[in-house]
Amino acid sequence: MGAGAGVSGVRVTADKATGVAVVTLDRPERLNAVDLATAADLAAVWREFRFDDSVRAVVLTGAGERAFCTGIDRGAEVPQPGSPYMVDDPLLTVGPKANDLWKPVVAAVRGMACGGAFYLLGEAEFVVADETATFFDPHTTYGMVSAYESMYLAQRMPPGEVARMALMGTAERISARRAYEVGLVSEVTAPGEAVAAAVRCAETIAGCPPEAVQGTVRACWAAREAALSQALALAPHLVALGNLPAERQAELFAARRPDGFRVR
Q1: CA dist 261 to 100, 138, 141, 170, 172, Å?
Q2: Distance CA 35, CA 121 (A)
Q3: What are phi and psi of 134, to 5 degrees?
Q4: What is the domain-level CATH number for residue 69?
Q5: How many domains is the chain built from?
Q6: pLDDT tens digits, residue range 196-227?
Q7: Any bridge partners for residue 21, and if so which?
């Protein structure tokens, strides 16, 4: 890889010879949770790639061994309007499609991917995971509606599997192997090999004519875009009506038992 650039919690490296850029969530001490600065940086990276013709494919991953991403950083303060018809969600702009980037993005997952991580995985073309990866959605455990996350997952997994993940909360995690079986993951690698496998895929894709590649990305997204857009339009109301007050969520989060789950 060539020289890297980093701002806040995002690190970018690009190899102009292959046309592949690697975007790394670089907050391992926070399990790569996304704070407001990182959300803004992700949006900026995707929008910059729109104008960089030397980048023809992207790999998205997380730093460290413990997590790909654990969603929104609970320390982030996001003021909310006092209306169920308006919800400010900073994660809505962290993905490539939300920023009008139609270059292919391959996600490489090691360790935990949970909650708001599905905003990112939901806008990747496909997901490569190593054997340490686990996937879960903690929202219901902490008195929160899994709305956006479930809607993104429903584009990749059978409805029953989405419902089980969302409703079981922190009680159960899906292993990389099970995620492969239900279609969330397209390839499972040995521990520590997900990024290398994703880069190999990205290099192959980057070697094809970019107009054809980007048109194919757009076509694949169009096949599910209408249903997803309609579903996402309901999400703010479901979140506003179903979430417990923030102080009660914090109480439930503080009382969590990290080891009280099983991997399926």
Answers
A1: 38, 11, 12, 6, 5
A2: 17
A3: -135, 150
A4: 3.90.226.10
A5: 1
A6: 999 999 999 999 999 999 999 999 999 888 78
A7: 14, 58
Flag whether the pTM goes above 0.90. no
What residue numbers bound the domain in which 123 lies? 1-74+87-190+210-258
Q: Give tens-digit pLDDT for 226-263.
A: 788 888 888 887 877 787 787 888 888 787 766 678 78
Query: Does residue 227 form part of some domain?
Result: yes
9 belongs to a structural domain: yes
Give a yes or no: residue 200 inside a domain.
Answer: no
User: Does any domain span residue 199?
Assistant: no
| pLDDT value, residue 2 | 37
Examine the pLDDT at 42 and tell me if it is beyond 70: yes
